Amino acid sequence: MRSLTSLCRSSWLSRTRREAPHSILFSNTLCTDNSDGVQSSRIKIFDRHFRRKQLDRAAWLMRSKDSFVDTVAENILDRLEDCKKTFPTALCLGGSLEAVRRLLRGRGAIERLIMMSTSHDMVKLCRDAEHGVQSENIETSFMVGDEEFLPVKERLALKPDGLFLAAILGGETLKELRIACTVAQMEREGGISPRISPLAQVRDAGNLLTRAGFSLPGVDVDEFVVRYPSALDLVEHLRAMGETNALLQRNTILKRETALATAAIYDSMFAAEDGTIPATFQVIYMTGWRDHPSQQRAKRRGSATVSFQDIQKQFGSES
Fold first, then answer.
1. With CB atoms 3.0 to 4.6 Å apart as the test, which of 117, 146, 215, 264 could cross-link to 122 if both were Cys?
2. Smallest Cα–Cα separation from 281: which of 68, 128, 134?
3. pTM of the model
């Protein structure tokens, strides 16, 4: 599973500062990944080619509605609805495009929507699903492209006063599976290898928004506990979301005995009385604005006309 870390994600966010014909940017990828890069100095963490294969597979498995993905998409769109501004043009990219489009329902007064994914099959899924969307006066176009290199010539991301919305999985995600994997590998193999990619912490998300130059950055967190009949069902759900391990240095071989031990340990440590197992998903929501003179700004240091001592005296006298 991929994550947004201060190392691998900052290069992409920094490019969102350049002006482009989009007034809102959705990044609804549950976990985002590193670019393949053109500079040899860039550290490659994730396998971009395998990432496309993951989304191709997910497009075929994602044929029914996913309540968890729909909930995350609704929460992103609720944040859009809370904004009193309108956004004529929007770019939506990531792994859950279809859910955002289906649940948009006129929020944000969007007139033109661009849906983009690295996977041709995922884009085709969204295009096919467009026929089932309730009638809306939204001009929708579809594009195959890498989110790390937006194919919008040299003008990337947001207009001034444009809005960036994103949802990613945080560091507490799948903590039960991590524990079970670690114990099983130590028992069966005498060591551990990363089966789940490193995930972002809340402070990473806030730092990235600030480093990228967004104004009025905001980060908040939701935590969901989803119950599954077995560990195998959890893995199948991750595959259907396109959110399995895509580390470049991943171990591509999982021994059968280790897999069985992982499932058994997961069940023995975390199973409920009804036999189901819990899986924690921590979702980090990120909000940022492209700088604009009309936005709220902090006053210049030293420009205050009232001291804290005066405030303390006033409130002290009232009490």
1. 117
2. 68
3. 0.78
